[in-house]
Design brief:
Elements (H helix, E strand, L loop, with lengths): L2 H20 L4 H4 L11 H20 L15 H22 L7 E4 L5 E4 L1 H25 L9 H8 L2
Antiparallel strand pairs: 1-2
Helix pairs in contact: 1-4, 1-5, 3-4, 3-5
Length: about 160
């Protein structure tokens, strides 16, 4: 298996642990905007993560006409799972498109008309580390709302897969 596809598989496993946890929260807490997080909610952060993948990998790298994720259109964790199914398909398309060409800069365009050349390696690294950054925030919001999150770190996932 290509190494980045394998890496993304691990990312999806930690995301699944987070989704499973979020499904235990009341729906009103999943969408509750928390003042300590600039008014963000768990749902809004999930949508932001998906949108980052869609924007950087889909729109900018692959040049696809993709709509941005509108958090208010996503009402439940199950709805968000559907958003991430589309995101996962796009990530795999990106990985297939650039397999073996990780260091060759590709032209990307921005909404304001600016252009840049960025490597697929940078694009993949940016989007995946961005997800982990916000995963930590989601767990923190859950704690602030009074819930005990599971361990969503890779080491826990590794332990379960080697037993």
């Amino acid at each position: 298996m290509e190494v980045f596809a394998s890496q993304y598989h691990w990312i999806k496993r930690t995301r699944e642990a987070l989704f499973t946890y979020c499904e235990t929260l009341p729906q009103e807490d999943y969408v509750k905007e928390v003042e300590n997080f600039a008014g963000d909610s768990i749902r809004n952060l999930h949508a932001h993560v998906a949108d980052c993948y869609l924007t950087w990998l889909g729109i900018r790298a692959l040049g696809k006409p993709i709509s941005h994720v509108q958090p208010e259109a996503v009402h439940t964790v199950q709805d968000m799972r559907e958003v991430f199914k589309e995101t996962d398909a796009l990530v795999h398309e990106f990985l297939n498109e650039f397999q073996g060409n990780w260091e060759e800069a590709v032209p990307v365009s921005f909404a304001n008309g600016d252009k840049a050349k960025i490597t697929p390696l940078w694009l993949f690294t940016h989007t995946t580390t961005h997800e982990f950054h916000h995963k930590g925030q989601i767990v923190k919001i859950g704690r602030q709302l009074g819930y005990v999150p599971p361990d969503t770190d890779l080491i826990e996932e590794f332990s379960r897969s080697t037993v």
